[in-house]
Each structure stands twice: as C-alpha cells, then as structure tokens.
Write a structure and sequence with these properties.
By secondary structure, this protein is mostly beta strands. It is built from 1 helix and 15 strands. The termini are far apart.
Length: about 170
C-alpha cells in the first residue's frame, strides 16, 4: 500500500548510488518523508543524505549492513534532514566497527536525530570537522557502541542540543 517503492540493485557505488535508499533520497524534491519498511541493508559504501528529507521507520524498521566491509559510516547527513524511529546497527562489523551516523556540515538548517536505537557501532553519531549546523538529539537509545555515543570534532561551530536520550554502555 506504499508507493513508490525503491529496492537495492546490484550496484554499490560512491555515496550509496545504486541503493534503494539513495534512489529514494534523490527522486523526491525536498522536503519529503521516506519510510523504511522492515529491515533495510546498507552495502559497503556510505549512503549520502543530501536532501532535507525525513527518513523514518515504520514499526520495527532497522538499518544494518550487508557483508563485512566495515570502513565507512552507514549514513552521512549533509542536509537539514531528520532521522526518526529506526534501529541502526553495524551488524557483523567488529574490527573496525562502522560509525552509524556522520553529520557532515549541512551548512544551513538543523539535523534532527530522534527516537532511534543506535547500537553496536564505532561512534553512534560522529559530527565531523567544520560542521556549522545545529544538531538536535532527542529520545534516542544509544548503547553498546565501541567508541562514543556522540563524538563532536573540536573544529565545529555548530550547536549540539541533546535532551532525553538514554546513552549508556558506550566508551567511557
């Protein structure tokens, strides 16, 4: 009952090109709502979220990797996007673990990460160098990550607003 639907092809190109999620991000003019139904697998390459969309789960929706290539983040947010209601993990990766979400300077607007379960990654959320955007973290359950629940590089000028999150059993 949902349309249009996007599925992964055999491609695994830079920025997630050839994946159903990247196709959905590129197809709709911003802002749009993209709903992940069930379990979605991210291939080796990071999926670039470069539109001001809301990517949300439906019920017990999850994002995890396929395969064991673990040197890139799962999602890279480079727009004023919202990630909501998803369980995101790095699956079988352990040496190294994958960062789950990178925030990479959307330049304007606010990145919102809310009501997610972020577990088993390297850094659950890594706000990379020179970020100027505001990042709102609300109502997330962040646990079991090998490194930090949230890591913000020191060269950032953006504001991090974290409220009502459950951050535990990550790096001390």
């Amino acid at each position: 009952g949902q349309s249009p639907c996007y599925l992964n092809s055999l491609d695994d190109k830079s920025d997630g090109m050839g994946t159903g999620l990247k196709d959905a991000i590129d197809a709709a003019p911003a802002p749009a709502t993209i709903t992940i139904l069930g379990n979605y697998t991210v291939k080796q390459n990071t999926i670039l979220v470069d539109q001001a969309h809301t990517i949300q789960g439906s019920g017990a929706s999850a994002i995890s990797p396929s395969g064991t290539s673990c040197d890139q983040a799962m999602l890279k947010i480079a727009a004023a996007a919202t990630i909501r209601g998803l369980a995101i993990s790095d699956g079988e990766c352990s040496s190294p673990n994958r960062d789950l979400i990178w925030v990479a300077d959307p330049n304007q607007g606010t990145v919102t990460i809310e009501s997610n379960d972020l577990m088993g990654g390297e850094d659950a959320i890594h706000i990379v160098s020179n970020n100027k955007a505001a990042v709102n973290l609300r109502f997330n359950h962040v646990t079991g990550n090998n490194a930090y629940a949230v890591y913000m590089d020191t060269t950032n000028t953006g504001v991090l607003d974290a409220s009502a999150n459950n951050l535990y059993a990550n790096r001390t």
